[in-house]
Amino acid sequence: MAGEGEKRPVLETIQAEGADEGCVTFVMHDEDHTLGNSLRYMIMKNVDVEFCGYTITHPSESKINFRIQTRGEIPATEPLRRGLNELNDVCQHVLNTFQARVDEFKGRQEQPMD
Amino acid sequence: MAAAMNRVDEIRNRVILGEFGVKNVHTTDFPGNYPGYDDTWDMQKFQKNFRIDIVHLDENNMEFDMVGIDAAIANAFRRILLAEVPTMAIEKVFIYNNTSIVQDEVLAHRLGLIPIKADPRLFEYRNTGKEEGSEIDTIQLQLKIKCSRNPRASKDSSDPQELYLNHMVYSRDIKWVPIGNQADVFADSRIGPVLDDILIAQLRPGHELDIVMHCVKGIGKKVAKVVDSRLDTCSREVLRHDDLKNLVKLGRVRDHFIFTVESTGILPPDVLVTEAIKVLMAKCQRFLSELDSCGME
């Protein structure tokens, strides 16, 4: 636990000694299945990724170990960054679609009253 | 319809309901799993197939279908709706006087569960360790009530309703005490409990409550305020008939989700869903900016 005033860590990387940049475990603080599972799905969709998985270290710790192994020694940060960007774009599209449908629905509800 | 579908497509797109369990539960359409299929992420394909249909929407409830999205992401929205959309809730209870039979800590807990109507988007999170609240992060509420005998009650009455005044303390007795410029800023949004008939305590003559409460913005990891569930009913009755059970196959479309959102009344359900989606985006942004700030390692 970080002390008072000290900045709490957000993201740490753990690499085995001698391992290449493609095999990295990212420690994501204050996250759980919500981001873990959806991000894993997006990253698994990437052809450059050999393996992607995550674990919750312990129920009383609010962090996840997020493991990425890539093909062809591509740095693991690349699929991570790409996965985060794609997940963000997916959310943006869902948000736009949802708002458009809600506006449409509300518009339709108001019409018969006029 | 299922018969026309080939075996591989069935595994990819359907969850099969058997007599005693479900098959093909996990998503398997990842690159490399199926020869002849291109399963890499394709934004255009997603945008083409994704759709939302709103079935019902009113002040407190909504139901919609979300189609063409993986369970992992749909479940993320569900999880955020349940536990991570911020709301204003009573966090600190200052009890100046409590002569009722309800213990202070029980009373404080009861008060903490009352949903408070205030738009959380207009407030900031209170910094940890900060004791004093300010107008941008705190709502102050007051509950001051005293029970007494009703002088106009008939002599032989035994009905507490008639005998005493203020013997039932309801959430409507909680009054909002604006801090700073809040009285002007929130003049037209009535801040206070969402429902006015929540019974907080019962008093007898001489009992008195004098309480000040501070509401702060927080996420419901402690107090859930939205009920959201996947409505899923599919009768498996046919599987009980021996003559039919080998002739039918029940399947469910993997990427079709029915969301039912029920709000506690603080925010309308459609706003809750948009906020939930934004929360997931914020999570992505948090790590993207962290990746940028520490540079490519």
UniProtKB/TrEMBL annotation, chain A:
<dbReference type="InterPro" id="IPR009025">
    <property type="entry name" value="RBP11-like_dimer"/>
</dbReference>
<dbReference type="GO" id="GO:0006362">
    <property type="term" value="P:transcription elongation by RNA polymerase I"/>
</dbReference>
<dbReference type="GO" id="GO:0003677">
    <property type="term" value="F:DNA binding"/>
</dbReference>
<dbReference type="InterPro" id="IPR036603">
    <property type="entry name" value="RBP11-like"/>
</dbReference>
<dbReference type="GO" id="GO:0005666">
    <property type="term" value="C:RNA polymerase III complex"/>
</dbReference>
<dbReference type="InterPro" id="IPR022905">
    <property type="entry name" value="Rpo11-like"/>
</dbReference>
<dbReference type="GO" id="GO:0006383">
    <property type="term" value="P:transcription by RNA polymerase III"/>
</dbReference>
<comment type="similarity">
    <text>Belongs to the archaeal Rpo11/eukaryotic RPB11/RPC19 RNA polymerase subunit family.</text>
</comment>
<protein>
    <recommendedName>
        <fullName>DNA-directed RNA polymerases I and III subunit RPAC2</fullName>
    </recommendedName>
</protein>
<dbReference type="InterPro" id="IPR033898">
    <property type="entry name" value="RNAP_AC19"/>
</dbReference>
<keyword id="KW-0539">Nucleus</keyword>
<keyword id="KW-0240">DNA-directed RNA polymerase</keyword>
<dbReference type="GO" id="GO:0046983">
    <property type="term" value="F:protein dimerization activity"/>
</dbReference>
<dbReference type="GO" id="GO:0003899">
    <property type="term" value="F:DNA-directed RNA polymerase activity"/>
</dbReference>
<keyword id="KW-0804">Transcription</keyword>
<dbReference type="Pfam" id="PF13656">
    <property type="entry name" value="RNA_pol_L_2"/>
</dbReference>
<dbReference type="GO" id="GO:0005736">
    <property type="term" value="C:RNA polymerase I complex"/>
</dbReference>
<feature type="domain" description="DNA-directed RNA polymerase RBP11-like dimerisation">
    <location>
        <begin position="23"/>
        <end position="96"/>
    </location>
</feature>
<dbReference type="InterPro" id="IPR008193">
    <property type="entry name" value="RNA_pol_Rpb11_13-16kDa_CS"/>
</dbReference>
From TrEMBL, chain B:
<dbReference type="Pfam" id="PF01000">
    <property type="entry name" value="RNA_pol_A_bac"/>
</dbReference>
<dbReference type="Pfam" id="PF01193">
    <property type="entry name" value="RNA_pol_L"/>
</dbReference>
<dbReference type="InterPro" id="IPR011263">
    <property type="entry name" value="DNA-dir_RNA_pol_RpoA/D/Rpb3"/>
</dbReference>
<keyword id="KW-0539">Nucleus</keyword>
<dbReference type="InterPro" id="IPR001514">
    <property type="entry name" value="DNA-dir_RNA_pol_30-40kDasu_CS"/>
</dbReference>
<dbReference type="GO" id="GO:0046983">
    <property type="term" value="F:protein dimerization activity"/>
</dbReference>
<dbReference type="InterPro" id="IPR036603">
    <property type="entry name" value="RBP11-like"/>
</dbReference>
<dbReference type="InterPro" id="IPR022842">
    <property type="entry name" value="RNAP_Rpo3/Rpb3/RPAC1"/>
</dbReference>
<keyword id="KW-0804">Transcription</keyword>
<dbReference type="GO" id="GO:0005666">
    <property type="term" value="C:RNA polymerase III complex"/>
</dbReference>
<keyword id="KW-0240">DNA-directed RNA polymerase</keyword>
<dbReference type="GO" id="GO:0003677">
    <property type="term" value="F:DNA binding"/>
</dbReference>
<feature type="domain" description="DNA-directed RNA polymerase RpoA/D/Rpb3-type">
    <location>
        <begin position="61"/>
        <end position="290"/>
    </location>
</feature>
<dbReference type="InterPro" id="IPR011262">
    <property type="entry name" value="DNA-dir_RNA_pol_insert"/>
</dbReference>
<dbReference type="GO" id="GO:0005736">
    <property type="term" value="C:RNA polymerase I complex"/>
</dbReference>
<comment type="similarity">
    <text>Belongs to the archaeal Rpo3/eukaryotic RPB3 RNA polymerase subunit family.</text>
</comment>
<dbReference type="GO" id="GO:0003899">
    <property type="term" value="F:DNA-directed RNA polymerase activity"/>
</dbReference>
<protein>
    <recommendedName>
        <fullName>DNA-directed RNA polymerases I and III subunit RPAC1</fullName>
    </recommendedName>
</protein>
<dbReference type="GO" id="GO:0006351">
    <property type="term" value="P:DNA-templated transcription"/>
</dbReference>
<dbReference type="InterPro" id="IPR033901">
    <property type="entry name" value="RNAPI/III_AC40"/>
</dbReference>
<dbReference type="InterPro" id="IPR050518">
    <property type="entry name" value="Rpo3/RPB3_RNA_Pol_subunit"/>
</dbReference>
<dbReference type="InterPro" id="IPR036643">
    <property type="entry name" value="RNApol_insert_sf"/>
</dbReference>
